[in-house]
Design a protein that fits this description.
Hgh1; 249 residues
């Protein structure tokens, strides 16, 4: 727990990685993903936040995403791990850090859709979709049971939505998200958030993604949002508008 706290500082995360080699990280991930790894029955949940903090750094993201080690696939199931909010939050934090780095967007959106499913599954409920809509969804998100519930923690829901927003930066990625039924999933999620959970920040985060996905590319008129230079005064205006919008919700 102490290491998870001090590694929040990016410079310290760099220092920790300098003392570790990829094999050390591999051993830590093995311990994290094997629930009965610790013979004294310590749950090792705080390894999740530690990995999250390490992926603040470029080297941390690189190690987690390298095909050579396949670490990202090993941690994905814990994005929906109901037995521990700490473990679940750490995993979602890792995914968010990776999504905020455009270098890894092609990896995130690769086939099969395992990483995209890890981002979307916690936002899915038991709603039924039309046959046409179901055909768009990744296999793992089709025909979810009536007992399916959404992520209960609003901070984690917001992190997932912010991650999806980052994936909307490039035209190629936006088209992929549309083809996988992300809009349809968020449409139902927004209804639930507005009626049941009623978290204003999550509603705004959802609407930010939907506002992009419902637009045609001709309307957007650019390939990469991240290449747009937004003046400081305009950025501040947008933030103020968001604050006013949240007050009115």
């Amino acid at each position: 727990m102490v290491l998870s706290n001090i590694s929040r500082v990016e410079s310290i995360a760099h220092d920790i990685l300098n003392e570790l080699n990829p094999k050390d990280i591999l051993k830590m991930v093995k311990a994290f993903t094997k629930l009965d790894y610790n013979k004294k029955k310590n749950k090792l949940d705080y390894l999740g936040p530690i990995f999250c903090n390490l992926t603040q750094t470029g080297r941390g993201r690189e190690i987690i995403c390298l095909d050579k080690y396949n670490l990202i696939d090993k941690i994905l199931p814990f994005a929906s791990f109901q037995d521990s909010l700490i473990r679940r939050g750490g995993t979602i934090g890792i995914l968010k850090n990776i999504c905020f780095d455009p270098v890894y967007h092609d990896i995130i959106l690769r086939d099969p859709d395992d990483i995209l499913c890890a981002l979307l599954y916690p936002l899915c409920g038991p709603e039924e979709f039309s046959d046409e809509e179901n055909d768009m969804l990744p296999i793992d998100l089709q025909f979810l049971p009536e007992t399916k519930t959404r992520e209960e923690d609003p901070d984690l829901r917001k992190m997932l939505l912010e991650s999806l927003l980052q994936l909307c930066s490039r035209r190629k990625s936006r088209e992929h998200l549309r083809s996988k039924g992300v809009y349809e999933i968020l449409r139902e999620y927004h209804k639930w958030e507005a009626k049941i959970a009623k978290n204003k920040e999550c509603l705004l985060a959802c609407e930010n993604v939907v506002d992009i996905l419902i637009k045609k590319e001709d309307e957007i008129g650019l390939d990469n949002y991240k290449q747009v230079d937004v003046p400081q005064d305009v950025a501040e205006k947008f933030l103020k508008e968001d604050e006013e919008y949240l007050k009115d919700l």
